[in-house]
Specification:
216 residues; globular; mainly alpha
Length: 216
């Protein structure tokens, strides 16, 4: 069977390196101009957490045959708990990455609309504040649930160990649904206010274009 591990790793490397370059350039510029804020801290946390996810993925591919058909793997690999442990870690860090990245973006919005000079701007700030509460509340809870999804915790990667686990399929569906909904709100929330602002601030048009890239 075809080994897709190299394809998966290539995709991770390409997007991971691109994201790292963007984050380093942004934070370097912000430090140089002495305009760092909480959004930069959350962005850095998201980047470090994402790098950890990439590392877990690479180890799965290189050491444990991730991307290959199960029947092609040696029995020692199929029976080892290590791949499941790495996948469990990836679940945990995914929640941290998503939480930090979304809060970073929302804090940028909050700062951008800090001058509430119209009802539309005030409404956008209120929605942004509500989204921050929703994102932090849900993903922090999901982060903890991912860690303690089984009792004892080690049952998450040692499936034959006595104990109990939550319904992981349902949990993943809920998390995916919340992820999609919050992403849509993340993209849509600032657009009406930005559309109004672009008449006096032409650079806002470029920002709107970047935000709309999230729809791709």
């Amino acid at each position: 069977m075809e080994n897709r591990g190299s394809i998966l790793t290539s995709n991770v490397l390409v997007f991971g390196i691109a994201a790292l370059c963007f984050v380093v350039l942004r934070i370097t510029f912000r430090v140089y101009t002495r305009k760092t804020s909480a959004s930069d801290c959350f962005l850095a946390i998201a980047m470090v957490s994402s790098i950890a996810q990439d590392a877990f993925h690479a180890v799965c591919v290189l050491n444990w045959g991730y991307g290959r058909h199960k029947a092609d793997l040696p029995s020692a690999v199929r029976s080892s708990p290590e791949p499941l442990k790495l996948l469990w870690l990836n679940q945990v860090f995914f929640k941290l990455t998503t939480l930090s990245a979304k809060v970073s973006i929302l804090l940028v919005y909050y700062h951008l609309f800090k001058r509430a000079n119209s009802k539309l701007i005030r409404a956008t700030r209120m929605i942004t504040s509500g989204l921050i509460v929703l994102v932090v509340g849900y993903y922090l809870a999901a982060f903890l649930v991912s860690i303690f999804q089984c009792t004892p915790v080690s049952k998450s990667w040692s499936r034959k160990q006595p104990g109990t686990c939550i319904d992981l399929d349902r949990f993943r569906y809920y998390t995916a649904a919340v992820n999609i909904i919050t992403s849509v709100f993340l993209i849509a929330t600032p657009l009406p206010a930005l559309s109004k602002m672009r008449q006096s601030r032409p650079e806002v048009t470029e920002l709107m274009g970047l935000i709309l890239l999230g729809l791709v």
